[in-house]
Design goal:
239 residues; mainly alpha; Cytochrome Bc1 Complex, Chain D, domain 2; two-stranded antiparallel ribbon; elongated
């Protein structure tokens, strides 16, 4: 029995034989007909096709409806009312309610949005159950529908109550007009009291701008001589 001669190895019952071992390599996708497919190129090609459809749709929207541009930002213009984009209108409308505005502005600006987005982030931990049917998850479905309804209502109310014509007028781009200061008419203008209300370049100050008024020359001359009177009150004195 030197060096194992005459010994017979019968095997270890704790170690399965090769014929009983499970293969470490997963089965090919062809083993599951109709249930799966190759990642490349079948699955990836479908993803690219869907992405291309959405990309072309976005490009067509940008061509048909270009981004609206307003006049140059003026931080000294206190009459300008800023408005967020449509997807933030519900938060903008929330700040108009008494319980979320004024001294309680922090409630509508920070606390309520923070609670809503915090609940959204904690949703997987608050509802960890394996059930995925909507009928078996009444509370998450109810809260989700309530959130969607609140967002839709606040957005609708903000759109209805906003003065869109005034918003378009306040951001309108006005072409810059070159003022000839050497003109005799400008000398008369600068020597009168008109310049104190309408500005050195007719851009407007206390009074309105005198450029792009859409008045005819005769109407301008009549206003300069007689001024503007409304409801029996002198709105603008004659020059």
């Amino acid at each position: 029995m030197h060096r194992g001669k005459g010994m017979k190895f019968v095997g270890d019952s704790r170690v399965p034989g090769l014929q009983h071992r499970k293969p470490n390599i997963p089965k090919d996708y062809s083993e599951y007909p109709g249930k799966t497919e190759a990642f490349w190129p079948n699955f990836l090609l479908k993803e690219w096709m869907i992405g291309a459809v959405f990309l072309i749709g976005y490009l067509l929207l940008t061509v048909a409806h270009p981004s609206p541009l307003e006049g140059q930002a003026d931080p000294t213009d206190t009459g300008y009312i800023p408005l967020p984009d449509w997807y933030f209108l519900f938060l903008y409308q929330l700040l108009k309610y008494q319980f979320a505005s004024g001294p309680f502005n922090v409630v509508g600006a920070i606390i309520m949005p923070g609670l809503a987005f915090g609940a959204l982030m904690l949703a997987p931990f608050l509802d960890p159950g394996p059930e995925r049917r909507l009928s078996k998850r009444p509370l998450p479905v109810a809260f989700g529908l309530l959130a969607v309804a609140a967002i839709c209502y606040l957005t609708w109310e903000s759109v209805v109550n906003h003065d869109w014509e005034a918003a378009e007028a306040q951001g309108q781009i006005v072409e810059e007009v070159q003022i000839d200061t050497s003109d005799p008419g400008y000398e008369i203008y600068s020597g009168s009291a008109c310049i104190s209300c309408h500005g050195d370049n007719l851009e407007g100050a206390v009074g309105p701008a005198l450029t792009n008024t859409e008045h005819t020359a005769e109407e301008i001359a009549q206003i300069a001589v007689n001024g503007i009177e409304e409801d029996g009150q002198q709105k603008m004195p004659p020059s």
